[in-house]
Amino acid sequence: MSEDVEPDEDARSAAQAAEFDTVADWTAQAAAALSPAHRIPAACRGSGGPPALDWLLDRCRVGPTTRLIDVGAGIGGPAAYAAGRTGVRPLLIEPQPGACRAARRLFGLDVVQADALALPIADHCCDVVWSLGVLDTVPDQAACLAEISRCLASSGVVGLLAYVASTDIDEPDTNHFPRPGELTALLSGAGLEPIDRTPLAELGPVPDGWQRRADEVDHEVARRHGDHPLWQQAANQERGVVRLIDTGQVTGQLYLLRRSP
Ligand SMILES: C[S@@+](CC[C@H](N)C(=O)[O-])C[C@H]1O[C@@H](n2cnc3c(N)ncnc32)[C@H](O)[C@@H]1O
Asked: Using one digit for the tens of pLDDT, what is the confidence trace for 35-56?
């Protein structure tokens, strides 16, 4: 990443801690207080819900014995969805302690607290690596993709959801959205090549009730903690990213990748 687009590291760390540590804990508490059906929708924080997850599960051929890691797993909604649909036992990797606690509490999943830039995984031992809505938040995108590639078995595949900026945009301090050409170069630099790809927007709508349940949990978190500065910081951040997506400046792109021959 060039220096002129490098977000301020302190701002990034503080913002990430607000959103994925403190508010993640609060989200798990609110979801647990509502109903079991609220948990997965509330815990998918970047992955677009069932249309995107089904697209990935079908193409990654995930089954009960698949060695699947989810890098930057957040509070575990995508991994829990995969476990429920296929019987897989995923390993979640996530740096923020609040999100790790939330994933264990909501879904009883295996979670390791670690950074995508130094994955605690042996070389070439994963059948499937997911990383959904994470790339724009990591400080060194090339190193993150290189780590993902290192963990992948020779026959393995990566499910990547990347948010990409169509043009030069005014980015928040906390994110760097790669331009399309930049993402192509990053993938190729990590020894990864696309097998399939779709814009998130071209997949079908989320099922009835999914967004409503996610919103109900968010409203409950706001009701409990809306006057707290960390909630306000996280909400502002989220609003900024949603505005970039809603105005088409940033689009979600789903990729199925393999290691380049
Ligand atoms: C938008 S959330 C997506 C969470 C989850 N993948 C999902 O789809 O619900 C971004 C996640 O990336 C994680 N993250 C940020 N920097 C990271 C890093 N250096 N290594 C691993 N994960 C990171 C954040 O803590 C957060 O949980």
From this structure: 999 999 999 987 779 999 999 9
Going through 34-145 in order, the beta strands assigned E by DSSP cover 68-71, 91-94, 110-113, 126-132
What's the token pair of residue 175? 């994110």
Domains of the chain: 3-259 (3.40.50.150)
**128-184: per-residue pLDDT in tens?**
999 999 999 999 999 999 999 999 999 999 999 999 998 778 888 788 999 989 999
- Residue 167 backbone phi and psi in degrees, to 5: -140, -170
| Ramachandran category for residue 108: left, alpha or beta (phi over 0 → left; psi -120 to 50 → alpha) | left
Pocket of ligand 1 (CB under 6 A): 16, 20, 44-47, 71-74, 77-78, 94-96, 99, 115-117, 132-134, 137-138
What is the Cα–Cα distance from 85 to 244, expressed in whole angstroms? Answer: 31
Q: From CA 174, how far away is CA 8, in angstroms rounded?
A: 7
